[in-house]
Amino acid sequence: LPVLEPKAPWKATTTTTPETQQTLAAATTAMWVLLAVANLSAGVTKLFGGDDAWRDGSALATLLAQSAWARPVVRDLGLPGGLLWLLSWGALLLEIAAPAVLLRWLRFPWWIASLCLHLSGLLLFTIPQVSLGMVLVHLFVAVDPRFGPRRSSR
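RE: above sequence
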């Protein structure tokens, strides 16, 4: 954690010790691995589990048809079946591709796509627990100094 060292009553600067930096790096690495494992296991379960809705691409259409799960305004939009099929498979492939976060150059694009997926889950469905938890994990790993595109040394 940052240590506050006041230089003047109206100013404070933060410094981090090497131990703090190592702890932060270890914690964020663990969270990246957690994101990879959680999403991969969810994707594999959907793909090889007993429910055919993910394999045939009708999962989102089925969820939106459930009056208890979808927000009424979303259910009433009448989204085309082809789009729902594409979004179902897109979500499934995104989850299966989650180990990409272990490669730095793929981390940021996957993070953006996954964050958008879970934010849309918060908007579309009345069961926000999983999406809210995943959004919070996404926000936690964003503090990783190794996160995001590499900056050139110019």
